[in-house]
Amino acid sequence: AQSVAQPEDQVNVAEGNPLTVKCTYSVSGNPYLFWYVQYPNRGLQFLLKYITGDNLVKGSYGFEAEFNKSQTSFHLKKPSALVSDSALYFCAVRKSNFGNEKLTFGTGTRLTIIP
Amino acid sequence: GAGVSQSPRYKVAKRGQDVALRCDPISGHVSLFWYQQALGQGPEFLTYFQNEAQLDKSGLPSDRFFAERPEGSVSTLKIQRTQQEDSAVYLCASSIYQGARMNTEAFFGQGTRLTVV
Hints:
The complex is a heterodimer. Chain A is mostly beta strands. Chain A is about 0% helix and about 50% strand. Chain A is built from no helices and twelve strands. In chain A, the strands form three sheets. In chain A, strands 2, 5, 6, 10, 11 and 12 form a six-stranded mixed beta sheet that branches. The radius of gyration of chain A is 14 Å and the shape is globular. Chain B is globular. The N and C termini of chain B lie far apart (about 35 Å). At the A-B interface, strand 5, strand 6 and strand 11 of A face strand 4, strand 5 and strand 10 of B.
């Protein structure tokens, strides 16, 4: 079975400070990892993904994430937070082999950027 | 269209009523997924189509839930004899299928919020 843990329900960061939203995963074999963001009354918007290659992946709106195989983590980061980054963030994992396309999501982390 | 479109956006059903939720995926996307998102939770997988073939329905919670995609484009999620525990946001997503390299991201619709009263 595959699973994702987002240990923090809520993260508060001052505007302009760096932010980190944590994610750890469990999956057999090599993982495909994703971050999505959800604004109120909106669907999930794709931010970035790790498939293979460089452990540091860059995505939309200045976000990046670092894949750490030994720690089974995929933390989301941004060097300087904006108030507009306030939203609900979901980490997701799926298996890399054919026939296992479904995503398993974490419970989400609410990020609040304080002006 | 430009994105995944779902209708209706909101649905209120009386307990025991049947409902049908529609999903229009991005044009040309082969893969289509349905997820259920309860309040305060992450999305939970329901079912997956590749074209018209339903390849995985392991997440459907009961035989009251049924999904179809007869022509490989528009999909409908049907819930029969709705119960209060069915109240949730139902999300549809689509992605391009790249053969064995199923590594493309899924694009989500805005969802249908179902409230069973």
